[in-house]
Amino acid sequence: MARPWWFLLMLWASSISLSLLSSSSSSAQQLSPSQTKTLLRLHRILEYPPAFNGWTNYTNPCYLPPSPSLSLVCCGYRVTELSVSGAPGAARLSPSFSIDSLFTTLSRLPSLTVLSLVSLGLWGPLPAKVHRFPSLRVLNLSSNHISGGIPREISTMASLLSLVLDGNQLNGTVPDLGSLPALEEVNLAGNRLGPEFPALGRSVVAAVLRNNSFRATIPPATQRLGNLQRLDASSNQLVGPIPPFLLSLPSLRHLDLSRNLLAGPLPANLSCGAQLEFVDISGNRLVGWLPACIRSNSSGVVLLDSGNCLASGDSRYQHPSSYCNEGAIAAAVPTTNKGGQFKNKLGFILGIVGGIVGAAVVLGLVLFLISMRARRENAGMGGLLKSVSVKSSSVLASPPPRTDARHMSHAVRLGTMGLMPYREFRMEELEEATNNFDSSNLMQENSQHQMYRGWLQDGSTIIIRCLKLKQRYSPQSVAQFIDVTSKLRHRHLVSILGHCINSEQENSNAGNCVYLVLENISNGTLRSHLTEWRKREMLKWPQRVAAAIGVARGIQFLHTVTAPGISGNDLNIENILLDQTLTAKISNYNLPMLPKNKNNKGGTENSSCPIEDGVRAYGVELGEKEDVYQLGLILMEIITGKPVLNKSELDAMRNKLQKSLMEGLEDLRELVDLTIQGTFAYDSLRTAVELALSCVSNDRNQQPSIDDILWNLQYSVQVQDGWASCESLSNHS
After folding, report:
1. How is the chain split among helix, strand and coil, in percent rounded to 5?
2. pLDDT at residue 389 above 60?
3. pLDDT digit string (tens) for 686-712?
4. Are 92 and 168 in contact (CB under 8 A)?
5. Residue 105: CB partners within 8 Å, gap ≥ 6?
6. Over the chain, what is the mean pLDDT?
7. What pTM was computed for the model?
8. Average pLDDT in the 645-669 region?
9. How do strand 206-208 and strand 185-187 relate by DSSP bridges?
10. Angle at 116 between CA 110 and CA 122, to 5 degrees
């Protein structure tokens, strides 16, 4: 019986399809022996990452299905794409690892167009041979421990479309990326690159440069970036004005210049690019009126402008103009025109000579004052505590150990932006601010201190903490204490603004008082923002991670500001305050110990006594671990929205979170605070959960260091930003 014509047609089409499928399958499965050996060698060099589990000499890599941790594409008997990812926060590979050997081996895969090695613990300087991939379009080495500079040879990779090196330890000047004609994406966030702003090519669409050490002005060449849609240069030290052309770039949608040292006004008649949607210029030193095209009440642009001195901003969230004027002078960049170079150099040399002469004079005066003070004390004039200014306190105090100076100088440079200069207050000022310490202004009182709220003449609110000394101390001891305490100024601490020492107490046998003046944070606690329905809507997942990073940075500062550091702090979530910009600040942290007194007659030392009981309830190491543990509890409450009040509740919550990580997203979503549902990337949340569980581990030896915590939280932010960018693009498409 004859077959129908349509049956014969279907049979013919099926045979053609099968033949094509078999030919493509066979070509996809074949790989040259040399390339197979190279992949197996990579397996060993990378110290057998889980992504390669199950590989043998008989494994055909091209036949493996792609997974989140491993993706490999073959074409024409060669590997063309290789993507390997490890666990977030991967530790450095062993000392025997060689990043130079890694790239030597990778160069045997010359057809690579995509190379992505993420969070694998790679360490060491990036070798110059990274350019040995003529067809490479994507290079992603993020979230490793790569150090040193970015090799100049990277500027010769003409095919490169995407360069992602964020989350490493790179430093130095970024090579010229303007010579890469195809480059569209640059992500260098979370390194130590600088000081010059990098040169970018005209094809760049997204440039993420945040959390580096760029300290220059934004160069005029930036106005040529006609394709730029996203620029994030936040958390650097950029100076000078914001170039007007930046807001006028035709394709720009997202601009983040927050937390820099940018100063001056923007032209009022400036016209913005038609695509502009988001501008964050908060935490700078800008003055004047903002252009109408970015004011939130007259345009569709989302604008964040707090922490400046803007006349057009909400005065509650702006600094007084004097703050920005002083900052603009301090951040001014000297001119570099050729005609004035000689004068600048001559002035610099004369300044050095003058400084040396002036220092010699000051040193002689200092020695004279020390001699006079010593004579007065030996004559019985030691008396009650004298009023000591911060500038002269180092004269009265014994020189601190070198380790103290090293730690303080490094830590104090970090995070003090936005605070009024530290100064000594007069007793009359504090009495006027508190209405003679009226009981109506008393906020808190116990055996160690009293806490008052006060108002200065300029209208600013302050908190005054009267510390009761339990024994008499020499002026040198108190001066050294004040000198160290004056360093407790950081963006993520309720910082100390100044001090006052009352030298006119009538009863010489009574305990003396040191008054510390602190900034006032009146926007509520972190817990109130997690529980009160009006505030809760302000803290979505990105804001909560930012708050956790703020607390971690505050802890890191306390641990390094002195040697030994300040640890064992009371990090109850009620002691974490949020200011008007939702910046987290630690309050009620410990204070340094008062130095021991020396008995001039007998040469013996009295036992040192802290100003407050319990300041050193832990040793240094145990104190640091306790701080990490408390931060873990804060993280758990940030994630779940539920306080953990006792050990049994902690054990129950820990077990639930651990189980949810094994089960997947749906189980974890059931434990997460309802307020943040739909605002987090799963990998970002998972990283934070894993970190919280590590912090509250019963085995304190398994706890991460505060540096590891910061690294993982910043990784969580990077994942979240990537997810948010994808969501934004999908919404616009």
Report:
1. 40, 15, 45
2. no
3. 999 999 999 998 887 888 999 889 989
4. no
5. 38, 41, 42, 45
6. 77
7. 0.48
8. 87
9. parallel
10. 100
Angle between helices 33-45 and 99-106 (to 10 degrees): 160
Q: Spell out the domains of the chain, with CATH numbers in brackets.
A: 34-171 (3.80.10.10), 215-332 (3.80.10.10), 384-520 (3.30.200.20), 525-733 (1.10.510.10)
Q: Which residue has the tokens 């100088």?
A: 409
Residue 513 β-bridge partners: 468
pLDDT of residue 408: 41
CA proximity to 720, closest of 538, 526, 545: 545
Determine the 3-state secondary structure of 442 from DSSP.
strand
Please give the structure tokens belonging to residue 577. Answer: 């305050």
Confidence of residue 363 (pLDDT cuts 50, 70, 90): low
Report the alpha-carbon distance of residue 592 to residue 484 in Å, rounded: 7
Compute the average pLDDT of residues 230-247: 92
The per-type count for the chain, helices as H runs and strands as E runs, is: 18, 26
What distance in Å separates the CA atoms of residue 624 and residue 558, rounded to the nearest whole number? 10
The Cα–Cα gap between 287 and 309 comes to 5
Q: What is the pLDDT of residues 467-507, one digit of tens each?
A: 877 666 677 778 888 888 888 888 899 989 999 987 654 43
β partners of residue 605: 598
> Contact at 8 Å (CB) between 694 and 702?
yes
CB count in 10 Å sphere of residue 268: 11
**529, pLDDT greater than 60:** yes
Mean pLDDT of 717-724: 80
DSSP 461-492: EEEEEEEEPSS---HHHHHHHHHHHTT---TT
Residue 550: count other Cβ atoms within 10 Å of its Cβ. 24
Cα 325 from Cα 54, distance rounded (Å): 64
Pick the closest to residue 26 from 67, 74, 68, 71 (CA basis).
Answer: 74
166 C-beta neighbours (distance < 10 Å), count: 25
What's the token pair of residue 306?
């707090």
Q: In 3D, which of 524, 621, 613 has the Cα closest to residue 570?
A: 613
With tokens 């090519």, the residue in question is: 201
Q: DSSP letters of 168-180?
A: SEEEEPPP--TT-
199: Cβ–Cβ under 8 A, 6 or more apart, which residues? 174, 176, 177, 178, 219, 221
Nearest to 194 by CA among 156, 235, 247, 140: 235
β strands within 11-113, DSSP E: 70-75, 78-85
**Per-residue tokens: 730:** 């999908």
Query: How confident is the model at residue 501, as a pLDDT?
Result: 83
Please give the Cα distance from 200 to 339 (Å, whole number).
29
Q: How far apart are CA 540 and CA 504, in angstroms?
A: 51
Please choose, from the candidates 246, 278, 245, 286, the residue with its C-alpha nearest in 3D space to the C-alpha of residue 262.
286
* CA gap 103, 127 in Å, rounded: 8
Cα(150)–Cα(171) distance, integer angstroms? 8
Give the three-state DSSP class for 616.
Answer: coil
Residue 63 tokens, joined: 């036949």
C-alpha–C-alpha distance, residues 229 and 225, integer Å: 9
User: 399-402 contacts: CB < 8 A, separation 24 or more?
Assistant: 400/480, 400/483, 400/484, 401/563
What tokens does 173 get?
């000047």
